[in-house]
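We give the entry.
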Amino acid sequence: MTSAETSDIPSTDEAPSPTGIGLTYAVGRMILSPLGRLIYRPHIEGKANVPRSGAVIFASNHLSFIDSIAIPVVAPRPVHFLAKAAYFDGKGFSGWLSREFFTAIGAIPVKRGAGQAALDALDQQRQLLDEGRAVALYPEGTRSLDGRLYKGRTGVAFLALQTGAPVVPVGLIGTDRVMPVGAKMPSLKEKVTVRFGEPLDLSHHGTADSGKARRLATDEIMAAIHALSEQELANAYNEAPAHGIDRIKQVLPHERR
């Protein structure tokens, strides 16, 4: 894996182990999930498609900063995702508030980097799956600024093929209107729809060390997301700059385009 292929992948250097999640997350989920549903009254489809136990990967389209809040709030089981370490490193009251909030919604702090750091990020997610947890990832890598659905990076497929975890495709609709790029606060007037698709078993594509298998598995994931989100297809990779927790671009070697 070259540095060019991994330069945008977050690193887990000095990040806490996923097993460190505890009371704050449990209490936060009990409070934030019903509160979020009460305020935004999201329309949820396909909740029965989500396995209630065991490792599972939620693979979603990505339109807004609040996507990483919307999925944990409406999912019928705890969900974890990677968030940049800066959200956990702040000082004073604001730093404490940020740290408690992101911990409460299931975020795992990571630092960005390339090379070994990229592999460490994959290891962080693999550890969560090995523990039988659910993780949420964005195959596009970063938010879509024009509302179109971009081609998927192969990191999600790599994890699925390596761990055997099923992939639940997710289609988010309306989160970009609730909190557009650049907005400091979410709107209370817009509504969100979250669609959970049927779990995908990607093992028939081959093994994780096959570039062709990763590419075909990724294309299957993106086709399922497209069917749920009904977005226009961009037929290109999203190369927008990273902002916040939304840039998890896991590009593996020999990616078939």
Summary: The helical segments are 3-6, 23-40, 67-74, 92-104, 116-130, 155-163, 175-178, 211-229. Residues 3-246 form a domain with the Glycerol-3-phosphate (1)-acyltransferase fold (CATH 3.40.1130). The beta strands are 9-11, 43-45, 56-60, 81-84, 107-113, 134-137, 167-173, 193-196.
